[in-house]
Structure formats: C-alpha cells, structure tokens
Amino acid sequence: MKPVVVRRSAVRMWAMAIGGIPLVILGVDVLTQRRITDALREILFRPEDTQIFEARDVIWAIVILAVGLLFAVWGVKELLFPSLVLRADAEGLTLNVRGPFQPAVLVPWAQIDDIGTGTVDDDGAFLEVLWIRFLAGHRVPSEPWGSRWLEPSTLALLSGDWEIRPSEIVESVIDIALESAREGAIEG
Description:
By secondary structure, the protein is of the alpha+beta class. About 45% of the residues lie in helices and about 25% in strands. The protein has helices at about 10-30, 35-45, 55-80, 165-185, and strands at about 5, 85-90, 90-95, 105-110, 110-120, 125-135, 145-150, 155-160. The strands form 2 sheets. Strands 1-2-3-4 form a 4-stranded antiparallel sheet. The protein has a 4-stranded antiparallel sheet with strand order 5-6-8-7. The longest helix is centred in the middle third of the chain and has 26 residues, at about 55-80. The radius of gyration is 23 Å and the shape is elongated. The two termini are about 20 Å apart.
C-alpha cells in the first residue's frame, strides 16, 4: 500500500519567496541610499511639498525589511525542504497541525471516524478543505495550525497552499484506511 503524502505547493512557495524580494529592496533602500524612494518622492510630490523622512519611516522600513526577509527565507526553505502537510499510511494520518517548528501529529486509524472534502466560508471566500471526524482520544491540539475545528470532533484542514487538491486524494486516503483496517482484522 503506497502512502499518500501532501506537501505545500512549490508554485505558491516560489511566489512567496519572490514576493518578499521587493519588500527587501524597498526596506534596504530606505535604510541606505534612498534612490528608489527619492525618485518616487519626486514623481509624487511637487518640489515645494516634498516630504522628509522621519524616525517612523525608518521604523517602517525595518518592519518591511523583516517581513520581506521572512517571506523570502520561508519560501526558499519550503522550496528546498518542503514541509509535510498530511501523510496517510498503514499507521494512520500524520498531520502538521502543531505549528511550523513542531513535530507532526500521528492519529491512528482507530481514532478516525470519517474523512471527506467540502468547503468552508471564510468571510465570503469559500475555501476547499479536507475534513476529518475523530473519535474520542485523538491527539490534535485545540488550536490547530493551518486548520480549524468545524465541530468539537471535526477538523477541517485548509488546503489553499497544498500541491494536491483534497478532492484528488480523499479516495486514496480512505482506501489506505480500509486496507489498514482489513490487515488489522486479519492479524487480530
């Protein structure tokens, strides 16, 4: 039985890394020579109404630089060493719901009642999810990373940055669960 492994989309991680570069450039420009920002200032303001840089502009430049570096470094890290989002194998479901620097949670098949796909409403935007209904005794945190509780026992994994859509993998995940249950019944 071949496991199902889902990671973050390389295209989205590449876009995140590329998106951080303009922020880094802008932050460095404000903190050093101000060539780009001076050129923009000349275009946007009349010479008699020009704006001068204040301490808050430097603080904002540091924040923009830090966010840009975070996006770029995180995107490149995910490209080179993609994080596991979900893995379904004979042991159960391994879910990355604890956070970015925490180990994934293994939930045995015996603690899972049902699995399916659906959508959730996020302030008017409908997001595709893979939902998992757990039995008592699961190890999923009460405030999961990259997912949300729909009901006290049903977790929706947000799939916006996955490389595979939930509708494409749910049948494979269910097949693995059934095969694992059959093997457990034969051995038991």
